[in-house]
C-alpha cells in the first residue's frame, strides 16, 4: 500500500510503512522516515554538495543489502544528479550519475527506499557538478577484537593532539558500528591520504602495541587500526547522523570530547535514533565546524 504525501512541495508515495526493518528492536520503515525527517536540519548540511552512496536494506537489516551509487532512471527528476567519472567501477561504467542530497524531499525519498546508511566522500561538487578538491580530512579508527571503542577513544585523544600540533581541530563521532572517526577541515596543504598516512605511521611507531596503520587483519587483533585511506577521493565514509544496519537502529553520532575522554565501557557510546534526536535537541549539532 502506498501513501501519498507532500514534502516541501514535492509529491512522494511512501510504501510499506509498517515493515519492520530492525526486527530485534521493532523499528519500522515509518520510524526510519520519521528519524531522517526530524534529524534533517543537522544532517543535510553534512550531505550538501557531496555525491551520495547508499546502502539499502529492502527487507530489513537481517535481509540482503546492496550499495547503490548510480541513481537509476526511475529516480524523480527533481532529485539533483551529477555525472562523475567512475574509475574502477565494478560494472565497467565510465561515469556514474550520483544523487546529491540537498533537501528534505530527497532525504525522505531515499529513506523510503530503505536506504538506511548514507555514505559520502570528503569532497563536494560545485554548482555545475564538477568535483572540488577535498575539504575534509578523516581518520577511521577500527578496533581489532578484543579492543573496542574504548581503545579507539584513547587513540583518538593521541590523534587529536597530533592534529592540533599541525594546526588542525579534530571533531569526533562514533561510526555507529564498533569504532569511531575523527574529522578536521582540510586546507589542502598536501595530498590528504599521504598526510593522514604519515600521522597514522607516526602514532604506530610511538605506540606499536596499541596502534596499527596497515590494513592486514592479521596485524590488528587487540589494536586500533587508524585507517588513513578513507581520504582517497574514490572512497566514502558514513555520514554523521546516518543510521547503521545493526541489531538496533544505531547512529553515527557526533561526540563531545569529554565523552571521548571519559569513556570506560563500549555501551557508553552506543546511541540509537531516539537517543540522537534527544541529543540534538539538547546540544545542537556537535559536528558543526562553522
TrEMBL record:
Q: Domain DNA ligase D polymerase, which positions?
A: 28-287
Report the InterPro entries cross-referenced here: LigD_pol_dom, MtLigD_Pol-like, NHEJ_LigD
**Matching Gene3D superfamilies:** DNA primase, PRIM domain
UniProt entry keywords in alphabetical sequence: Ligase
Q: Output the Gene Ontology terms for molecular function.
A: ligase activity
Q: Which PANTHER family match?
A: BIFUNCTIONAL NON-HOMOLOGOUS END JOINING PROTEIN LIGD
Q: What is this protein called?
A: ATP-dependent DNA ligase
Species for this entry: Nonomuraea longispora
Amino acid at each position: 500500500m502506498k501513501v501519498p504525501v507532500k514534502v516541501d512541495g514535492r509529491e512522494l508515495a511512501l510504501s510499506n510503512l509498517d515493515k519492520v526493518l530492525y526486527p530485534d528492536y521493532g523499528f519500522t520503515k515509518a520510524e526510519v522516515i520519521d528519524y531522517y525527517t526530524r534529524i534533517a536540519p543537522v544532517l543535510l548540511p553534512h550531505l550538501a554538495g557531496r555525491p551520495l552512496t547508499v546502502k539499502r536494506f529492502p527487507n530489513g537489516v537481517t535481509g540482503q543489502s546492496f550499495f547503490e551509487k548510480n541513481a537509476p532512471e526511475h529516480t524523480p527528476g527533481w532529485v539533483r544528479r551529477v555525472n562523475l567519472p567512475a574509475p574502477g567501477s565494478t560494472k565497467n561504467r565510465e561515469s556514474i550519475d550520483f544523487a546529491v542530497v540537498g533537501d528534505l524531499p530527497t532525504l525522505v525519498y531515499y529513506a523510503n527506499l530503505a536506504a538506511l546508511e548514507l555514505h559520502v566522500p570528503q569532497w563536494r561538487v560545485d554548482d555545475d557538478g564538477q568535483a572540488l578538491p577535498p575539504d575534509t580530512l578523516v581518520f577511521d579508527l577500527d578496533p581489532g577484537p578484543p579492543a573496542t571503542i574504548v581503545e579507539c577513544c584513547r587513540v583518538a585523544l593521541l590523534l587529536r593532539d597530533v592534529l592540533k600540533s599541525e594546526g588542525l581541530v579534530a571533531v569526533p563521532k562514533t561510526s555507529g558500528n564498533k569504532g569511531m572517526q575523527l574529522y578536521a577541515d582540510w586546507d589542502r596543504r598536501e595530498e590528504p591520504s599521504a598526510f593522514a598516512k604519515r600521522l597514522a605511521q607516526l602514532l604506530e611507531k610511538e605506540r606499536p602495541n596499541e596502534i596499527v596503520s596497515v590494513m592486514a587483519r592479521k596485524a590488528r587483533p587487540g589494536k586500533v587500526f587508524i585507517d588513513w585511506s578513507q581520504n582517497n577521493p574514490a572512497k566514502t565514509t558514513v555520514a554523521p547522523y546516518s543510521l547503521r544496519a545493526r541489531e538496533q537502529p544505531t547512529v553515527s553520532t557526533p561526540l563531545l570530547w569529554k565523552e571521548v575522554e571519559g569513556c570506560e565501557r563500549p555501551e557508553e557510546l552506543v546511541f540509537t535514533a531516539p537517543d540522537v534526536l534527544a541529543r540534538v535537541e539538547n546540544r545542537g549539532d556537535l559536528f558543526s565546524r562553522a
